[in-house]
Write a structure and sequence with these properties.
Radius of gyration: 24 Å
Bound molecules: pyridoxal-5'-phosphate
CATH architecture of the largest domain: 3-Layer(aba) Sandwich
Order of helices and strands: EHHEHEHEHEHEHEEHHEEHEHHEHH
Largest sheet: 7 strands, mixed
Shape: globular
Number of strands: 12
Number of domains: 2
Length: 405
């Protein structure tokens, strides 16, 4: 079995979540909107999922809207707040290191007259709360800044940003906690946010289901029209099994969080110590304000894609930067915003450890990563030497053989 160090891309479904979902995929198949007993049973299951998720987040059940995942939660928060606030203003503040489900959504809104301010970050990927405040004008209606970054693991100073945002009236504050929910406390009161996005598949729940916390009284316009589901905030027959699976996985993630985070931190440290011995490899992201199990590095002069493929062949699944950009041939917008030059960002690798990762796997992974990077570096050096030698050779020596003409 290959070693899986790509938990930031997705996690395996945990047994308890699968078991919680199974009745709702079989005999509990009813539509929660139906009035008969099948429907009423499904409604009760869905209501319970709202309760359990709200308890895990310290909010009320009606403040939870189930969605099809993190992308939809982010779209609903941003577009919903933007359209609801259009009468008051048109300015949206975000950061340059957001996931594309935030970054591309605000860019889309620009086409409709919204003005987007994308704040820069420091070399660790952090936004300065004072810069958020400086960007606020009377026309600002929304601030959306993620809790933890999916590529480098940096945690943003959300509470400090919220404190600045609250100095001004009528601005909603949304945070994308999709990567954070498994490993950091998501206390909406302490964070001071109005909306929070989460996705079940990042904490061993099922794919295709997420949730948006919307503070009671917050005006967010529904982004799809149809039925009255989720209190008119998200039309469409609910994914009852998915919601139950999300609730079960989130409860367990919250309960196990301190122990899991502590273990992941030590595993990450083991990996880092080994990789630090390789010349030209540097960690990216904040040294302390970071997710416990996510290790991202750049290896100057290396092709991150090639190393990822070689590691896969050697039995280790990881990613180059983010799952969302890998394969696209583009340099990560996150590393670019953090000031990494193109040749360094091209050598980005991300290893994300999960709850089920073992100490033995970490030991094995450390050896595989070091050996693979070193062999790629040797090959790159050899190739460069051959290229230099070929260029230095007199032209005649490399000219094609004379033909018999
Ligand atoms: C920070 C962040 N936000 C949003 C998403 C999108 O979530 P989903 O895959 O559930 O649509 C991801 C997924 O990688 C993410 O890492």
């Amino acid at each position: 079995m290959p070693i899986y160090l790509d938990h930031a891309a997705t996690t395996p479904l945990r047994r308890e979540a699968l078991e919680a979902m199974q009745p709702w995929l079989t005999e509990g198949f009813g539509n929660p909107s139906s009035v008969h007993s099948f429907g009423r049973r499904a409604r009760a299951g869905l209501d319970e999922a709202h309760e359990r998720v709200s308890r895990s987040l310290g909010v009320t059940p009606r403040e939870i809207v189930f969605t099809s995942g993190g992308t939809e939660a982010n779209n609903l928060a941003i577009k919903g707040a933007a359209w609801a606030g259009k009468g008051r203003g048109h300015r949206i503040i975000t950061s340059s290191v957001e996931h594309h489900s935030v970054g591309h959504t605000v860019r889309y809104l620009e086409k409709f007259g919204f003005e987007v301010v994308e704040l820069p970050v420091d070399r660790y990927g952090r936004v300065d709360p004072d810069e958020v405040e400086a960007a606020i004008t009377p026309k600002t209606i929304l601030v959306s800044i993620m809790l933890a970054n999916n590529e480098v693991g940096t945690i943003q100073p959300i509470a400090a940003i919220a404190e600045r945002v609250r100095r001004h009236r009528g601005i909603l504050f949304h945070t994308d906690a999709v990567q954070a929910a498994a490993y950091l406390e998501v206390d909406v009161a302490a964070l001071g946010v109005d909306m929070v996005s989460i996705a079940a598949h990042k904490f061993e729940g099922p794919k295709g289901v997420g949730a948006l916390y919307v503070r009671h009284g917050t005006n967010v316009l529904a982004q799809q029209q149809g039925g009255a589901q989720e209190r008119y905030r998200r039309a469409g027959t609910e994914n009852v099994a998915g919601a139950v699976g999300l609730a079960a996985a989130l409860e367990l993630a919250v309960a196990e969080r301190p122990a899991v985070a502590a273990r992941l931190r030590t595993y990450r440290e083991t990996l880092v110590e080994r990789l630090r011995t390789i010349e030209g490899v540097q960690e990216t992201g904040h040294p302390t304000e970071r997710l416990p199990g996510l290790l991202s590095v750049v290896a100057a002069g290396l092709d991150g894609n090639a190393v990822t493929i070689a590691l896969d062949l050697a039995g280790l699944a990881c990613s180059t930067g983010s799952a969302c950009v890998s394969g696209s041939g583009e340099i990560s917008h996150v590393l670019a915003a953090m000031g990494f030059p193109e040749d360094e960002a091209a050598g980005a690798l991300r290893f994300s450890i999960g709850r089920t990762t073992t100490a033995k796997e970490i030991e094995e992974a450390a050896g595989l990563i070091a050996a693979t990077i070193e062999s790629h570096r040797e090959a790159a050096t050899r190739l460069e030497a051959q290229r230099a030698a070929a260029l230095a050779r007199p032209l005649a020596a490399v000219a094609p053989e004379a033909t018999s003409e």
